[in-house]
Design brief:
With about 450 residues, the chain is an alpha/beta fold. It has 20 helices and 7 strands. The longest helix is centred in the first third of the chain and has 21 residues.
Length: about 450
């Protein structure tokens, strides 16, 4: 997003006129700073004389005037009286100012009388198309926060893009404005700022909703520390490891169930389970012509899913995930708190822990991610095909869940569960912005 820029004065002012006899002939005053100064006085009567006098005073130093060091402490008091008149004129003639609600205009004028240094921020805001789209209440909140802190323009502008074009929820808008206009935020690196803006401004339940809850805790910690530098370190730590759900798939929405059929059960006395063999009932679930074998231990555990539960779970999988599944084994006994496992070659193990069909389907999408990585990337300990995924984790800077931190294969399975869940939905663009490098790889692997 581009922001409006103010034009410089149209006088024939010469930078060389600032040189004193005996001074170095090289440029001695930052041109960019002078352009800003001239802009402040553009259109004010006798502005050139006033600016020259102010600069002359500001360039005077303790070294006798031969060193042209720009000293704001000397400069600012010299032009403050005429600056007050100039700032009001500049704001009211700024592009977009007259299109703002009257209450917002008045708020800007009043704040500017107290803090003339906010002129550039206010003129940029007035001309910013995304800021103009905000509700007046959020515009007012933004201005109030700007008067309290020194925000980073780049990241704040990105927050306005989110607010104007994407985020409609007023609470999310308020949190995003509170974040980006805080002095601690301005001290973060640009990468950290942009990551937080995308994360906190999102409407998804996978990462953004839990991250906002975590950010509120960080804001609470701000009250216990006395300076923005310390607050920035807290915010930086949060940016590198924001709060996330334990499992990504818990926030997923199941795929619409496909039609399925179940064959008659056939008893077996020596079916292969995870670690043993034993009696079972063997049946097939048929979905869109795909036949998936289901082995259910006999006698069934009280917490074990039924064949109908398994069929419904399989029917709720995205077709590309279901295509990777060959066999489901429902175990006779629990394995601690483990819900499911991956036995390789498309074979899933389901432990009797009281899984509903809906939750089982969500976990199956995660396990299908393991099948995909086994098939496409191989052993993560030795196969170089994992290198791009390792680089993607580092580049994206966020984790899809707490569980994904266990190892790289869990990161892949959790990210894949999110990818399959949001693909083709309004949330896809949002999640793609949060994990762009992972999504690029998954585009190639899943298509």
């Amino acid at each position: 997003m581009k922001t409006s820029s103010t034009s410089g004065a149209t006088s024939d002012f010469s930078y060389a006129a600032l040189d004193r006899p005996g001074a170095s002939p090289s440029p001695v005053v930052p041109f960019r700073a002078l352009d800003r100064v001239l802009t402040l006085f553009d259109g004010v009567e006798d502005s050139q004389k006033n600016v020259l006098e102010a600069l002359d005073h500001g360039l005077t130093s303790t070294t006798g005037g031969n060193v042209r060091r720009f000293d704001p402490s000397l400069f600012v008091p010299a032009f403050a009286p005429i600056g007050a008149r100039a700032t009001s004129s500049q704001l009211e003639t700024a592009f977009g100012f007259d299109a703002l609600p009257f209450t917002v205009q008045e708020q800007m004028r009043n704040e500017l009388r107290l803090r003339p240094g906010l002129l550039i921020s206010f003129t940029d805001l007035a001309g910013d198309r995304d800021f103009q789209k905000l509700p007046p209440s959020v515009q007012s909140l933004t201005i109030s926060e700007l008067t309290k802190h020194s925000p980073s323009g780049r990241a704040a502008n990105d927050s306005f893009t989110n607010l104007g074009d994407q985020v409609k929820d007023a609470k999310i808008q308020a949190t995003l404005v509170k974040l980006t206009t805080h002095g601690a935020f301005a001290l973060l690196s640009e990468a950290e700022q942009l990551r937080l803006v995308k994360l906190i401004g999102g409407e998804n339940k996978f990462l953004s909703e839990p991250a906002r809850a975590g950010l509120e805790q960080v804001f609470g910690y701000f009250e216990t520390v006395g300076d923005d530098a310390t607050r920035a370190r807290l915010l930086s730590t949060f940016a590198s490891d924001p709060q996330s759900p334990f499992f990504a798939f818990d926030n997923a929405t199941n795929y619409p169930e496909a039609l399925y059929a179940i064959t008659r059960g056939i008893p077996s006395q020596s079916s292969q389970f995870d670690k043993t063999t034993g009696p079972a009932i063997v049946q097939d679930v048929i979905i869109d012509g795909q036949k998936i074998k289901v082995i259910l231990a006999e006698p069934p555990h009280p917490q074990a899913p039924t064949i109908d539960d398994v069929a419904r779970a399989l029917a709720s999988l995205p077709p590309s995930a279901r295509a990777l599944v060959n066999e489901i084994v429902v175990e006779a006994q629990p394995n601690g708190g483990t819900m499911m496992g991956n036995a390789g070659n498309g074979r899933m193990i389901v432990f009797p822990v009281g899984l509903t069909a809906e939750r089982m389907g969500k976990v199956m999408v995660h396990e299908a991610g393991h099948f995909l990585s086994d098939l496409k990337l191989g052993d993560f300990n030795v196969d170089p095909r994992w290198d791009p995924w390792k680089a993607a984790i580092k580049a994206d800077g966020v984790r899809p869940s707490t569980y994904s931190k266990n190892n790289i294969t869990e990161d892949f399975a959790e990210a894949t569960a999110i990818y399959r869940n949001v693909r083709g939905t309004p949330l896809e663009a949002e999640m793609r912005a949060l994990m762009p490098e992972r999504f690029k790889i998954l585009d190639e692997l899943i298509g």
